[in-house]
Amino acid sequence: MSESTPTTSATGAPTVRPIAPEDRADWQRLFLAYGAFYETAFAPEVLDGVWAWLMDARHPQRALVAVLGAEVVGFAHFRAQPDTFTAHPGWFLDDLYTDPAHRGAGAATALVEAVAAEAGSAGGGTLRWITADDNDRAQRVYDRIATRTRWVTYEREC
After folding, report:
1. How far apart are CA 40 and CA 15, in angstroms?
2. Start-to-end C-alpha separation, the chain
3. What is the pLDDT of residues 84-108, one digit of tens each?
4. Which helix (H) or strand (E) holds 32?
5. For a disulfide at 6, which of 17, 122, 127, 145, Cβ 3.0-4.6 Å?
C-alpha cells in the first residue's frame, strides 16, 4: 500500500491507511486495550516511545490503521525483517488489534492484507506473526488468510 492511497471496498469494509499524527488518542486507546488483552499495562514512557517510533519516518517500525466511518477501529505495527533462509526481504507483524466492538467487520483481515501489499511493493518476501496459543478468535482469521507453521517461539530477556 502506498503512503498516499488508503484501501477500501465498496461493501463498507474498513479503510486502511498509514497512521497519522491526529490518530494519537485513538491509537493510544486501542494500544492500551491491546496490552490489557495480553495482561500488560503499558507505562506512559512505553506509549510515548512507541508513538515516537511510529511518527519517525526513519524508524523501521511502521503502522497502519483501520477506519470505519471516521473511527479508528484497529491497528497493525510491522517492520522489515531480513530473511536468512531466502536472502530476500522478510516482514514481521508485531502487533495487530481490532476494537472488540468492531470485530467481524473485516478490519483484521484488511490490515493484514494491507501490510502484505506494503511488503509486496517493497520487494516482497514472507510476512510472519505470532499470537497467543489461546487467542482462538484471531487464529480463526489467521488460519483463513495465512499458513500456520510448525515453529515454536521462545523468549529470553537480555
Report:
1. 28
2. 35
3. 999 999 999 999 999 999 999 999 9
4. helix 24-37
5. 17
Q: What's 103's DSSP letter?
A: T
Max Cα–Cα distance, the chain, nearest Å: 48
Contact status, residue 14 vs residue 67, Cβ threshold 8 Å: yes
For the chain, what are the domain ranges? 15-145
CATH code for the structural domain at 15-145? 3.40.630.30
Sheet holding 126-128, edge to edge: 15-18, 62-68, 71-80, 90-98, 126-128
CA pair distance 72, 14, nearest whole angstrom: 9
Place of cell 490489557: 36
**5 has pLDDT over 70:** no
Q: Which of 154, 126, 153, 131 is nearest to 142 (CA)?
A: 131
Residue 77: all three cell numbers together: 505495527
> Measured between alpha carbons, how far is 155 from 139 in angstroms, rounded to an integer?
21
User: Tens of pLDDT along 8-45?
Assistant: 444 578 999 999 999 999 999 999 999 999 999 999 99
Other Cβ atoms less than 10 A from the Cβ of 106: the count is: 20
